[in-house]
Design a protein that fits this description.
It is an enzyme of class 4 (lyase). By secondary structure, this protein is an alpha/beta fold. It is 40% helix and 13% strand.
Length: 321
């Protein structure tokens, strides 16, 4: 008899290939990037941000993304996203055929000028241009436009964000063409109460369906607590990174927590930990975070049945030395 899977309650979106790799000096070979994608897809992961389509000289870690995107798009049931800094990046993303284009917009205008070299008004024009360009794509090939609302929870230097202003900005971005908003704790400042408040404020402004996801860091050890607060509030998409790369919530620990409290992710933890081992081969000297892979799964823990493996992980002997 074939085991059946319960409906997924929360989608875990893997950000390690984007946030994680761009925070490192290593350039992952194309074969290693593909092995990472295949291993996580085999574990049941359904959503992955493949990388950032910035100018090639800005993020050399993101070179050769076209091969990785083509590989990911060939895996059944996997939703593939690419992050872009501007309209030109969106054009490159459209050429790859990704399912989702993610554009960062900083909640504070000073940070927008520092990180994006654009004011809020200029970023809104960029959102409109990208939305109009996407609308020109045939419906069956049209990607979804997502705006990542960066530093939505504030900054370590300037303090908590104005939640009413964040909700207002989310409303403005939605009117400009953003199809969904991700609340991002870019500076690692969020706490569970703030997560609940801001989630509700944004939902009141734009509706639940327009802001289903959250991106959390574990800078001060509150990553999982914030993720639980988001899920209890009703969030259905949580971003995380394998091994906590980039300082994000650890994918393995997040999946364990959710499955432990009866929230199904569709991800097989044994296979996910095997994927971590696979990725570690290609990142010599990089310390992967996470408690679950070190402690192991407790007796009696029932993971969901594994998805069919689409591609075996290369042996350690094939990894770069």
């Amino acid at each position: 008899m074939t085991a059946t899977r319960s409906p997924v309650g929360v989608v875990v979106s893997e950000a390690g290939l984007c946030d994680g790799l761009q925070s490192l000096r290593q350039r992952l070979p194309a074969a290693a990037r593909q092995a990472w994608i295949a291993a996580e897809a085999a574990a049941g992961l359904r959503d992955i941000e493949i990388g950032s389509l910035a100018a090639f000289g800005v993020l050399p870690q993101m070179a050769d993304l076209s091969e990785a995107v083509a590989h990911a798009l060939a895996l059944p049931g996997l939703r593939v996203a690419a992050r872009v800094p501007n309209f030109m990046g969106a054009e490159r993303a459209l050429a790859t055929g990704v399912h989702r284009i993610a554009l960062p917009v900083f909640a504070d205008e000073a940070h927008s000028l520092r990180h994006m070299n654009r004011t809020h008004a200029q970023m809104l024009r960029e959102v409109r241009r990208i939305a109009q360009r996407i609308d020109a794509v045939p419906r069956q090939a049209r990607p979804r436009l997502q705006v990542r609302l960066e530093m939505a929870f504030g900054c370590a230097l300037t303090g908590p964000a104005d939640e009413a202003a964040i909700a207002g900005l989310a409303e403005t971005l939605t009117a400009a063409g953003a199809e969904d908003i991700v609340l991002c704790d870019t500076a690692g400042c969020a706490d569970p109460r703030q997560v609940r408040r801001l989630t509700q404020a944004v939902w009141l402004a734009i509706g639940v369906q327009r802001a289903p996801g959250i991106h959390l860091l574990n800078t001060r050890g509150l990553g999982l607590a914030n993720a639980l607060a988001a899920v209890e509030a009703g969030m259905t998409v949580i971003h995380a990174s394998l091994g906590g790369l980039g300082g994000n919530v650890v994918t393995e620990d997040l999946v364990f927590m959710l499955e432990s409290i009866g929230i199904h992710t569709g991800i097989d933890l044994d296979a996910l930990i095997a994927a971590r081992t696979c990725v570690a081969q290609y990142l010599p000297g990089v310390v992967l975070q996470g408690c679950t892979p070190v402690a192991g799964l407790p007796a009696g823990f029932r993971a969901p049945p594994p998805a069919s493996v689409t591609k075996p992980c290369p042996m350690a002997s094939e990894a770069p030395k």
